[in-house]
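DnaJ C-terminal domain-containing protein
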Amino acid sequence: MNTGPQNDWFDKDFYKTLGVSKDASDAEIKKAYRKLARKYHPDANPGDEKAEEKFKEIGQAHQVLSDKESRAQYDQVRAMGGGARFSAGSGGPGGAAGGGFDDVFSDLFGGGGRTRTRTTYTGGGDVPPDLADLLGGFGGGFGGGGYGGYQPPVKGGDIKSSTTLSFTEAINGASVKLNMPGGKPLTVRTPIGVKDGQKIRLAGKGKASPNGGEPGDVILTVHVRPHPVFTRDGDNLRIELPISFDEAALGAEVKVPTLGGTPVKVKVAPGTPSGRTLRVRGKGVKTKKGTGDLLATVQIVVPKNLSKEAKQAVESFKAATEGEDPRAGLLDKAKAS
């Protein structure tokens, strides 16, 4: 019997390979495997032969210890063989050496004593039928598909979802309940200051992996309804501030609304033109990086209906400013260009 690969396999301590105790739970084994697989994966260590070999060993250990039946068999073999160490029989297939690989398996799988019942499986070697299946899928010299016979776990699929928030909810953050496949809702707290069209990744909340890998993610797209007064410019808030002609001409102190707060007073300097922007610091969007400002753009409002007295006042103002031309030089500039 050729015991080379088998003897090498049973000489390894799979618990030590994963860094767990012999009585480790399935969850502990799975957690340890994931951590080591990420660390030694060939894609993360290109050209590193030692990391590649370590990755194969980790895959072997996980395949044995993650399966309840194979783990039980492995534990029995270790107990009967003094720590999973075996010596090959001498003198060929019928060698007379005692305590070898076949003796342990004949006892373990029902052979008893020195009587050996051998079954040859496709792939070569004399291995009990149930153990042949166990060995056939391992990497590190036992054949099978994938990378060295080891099929790495696949991450579960992502789930795409969307939600619509009010302008204020987006600025302050909000709790959103998502309807997930299977009927179980998922409650999510959106980040403070989330923007329209922003995608939020909820790690580990997606579909389960088909072979023990990490679950997928939920990709949440946020839509934000417009506000009737405020618009967003990065972390700043913008507002159009209507003022009267006399406020613009003579100067004034006017109230400016803030988002969800009390109004603030700002000074309009005498002679302020329409379109000038006034900055109110610290009244914009609050984020982890800081707080933006409130930008109020002045718009001079012209009254549609003037009383007799108001009309006379405007006529007097017109006469008093007859020499001023707001369009002076405009025609010349237009011709020059």
